[in-house]
Amino acid sequence: MRALHEKKKYTYQDYCQLPDEVRAEVLDGELLMSPSPFRKHQKISWKIEFAIGKWVEENRLGEVYDAPFDVVLSQYDVVQPDLLYISYERKSILTEANVQGAPDLVIEILSSGDKKRDTVKKKAIYEKYGVKEYWIVDPDTETISVFILEGDNFQEKGIYKRNQVLESTLLPGFSLVLEDVFQSND
Predict the structure, then answer these.
(1) Regarding beta strands 71-74 and 24-27, do their DSSP bridges make them parallel or antiparallel, or are they unpaired?
(2) What is the Cα gyration radius of the chain?
(3) Residue at 22 is within a domain
(4) Are strands 30-33 and 77-79 parallel, antiparallel or unpaired?
């Protein structure tokens, strides 16, 4: 017997049928909509992208992208990380339309709406599919939590505060001055 109110499990094909202006992701077959990020979120994203992008380009390490750019992890898991990095060694997962597999580095910037999505649900998905390094940026507390994949599980490398410098395990020699990231230029 089928349930009266059966919940649809969304796929990448369903996702592709959405209008371009709809911001959404598919997490474990659940279609989740997102509003556009606020100004503070965008400023932080740009500062991190600029710093990492410059480092990656100068050292010829790979490519950095920002949202919206689809990352297809499975037919039931399609995400749009705020920022992502893919090394040249793994560039075969890049297509013109999307990324087909786990990026090396994923950065999510928390929004006021649903912090649990990035800190729990997406973290578990990134861990499951093998993202090597995951950063969760919290504009409210002005911190960045860094997780490193060890075996099949994320281990917390540290929580970096505004007055600290974050050094990436994945990008040796790269450092990010958090004071610069969270500095307000209002």
Answers:
(1) unpaired
(2) 17
(3) no
(4) unpaired
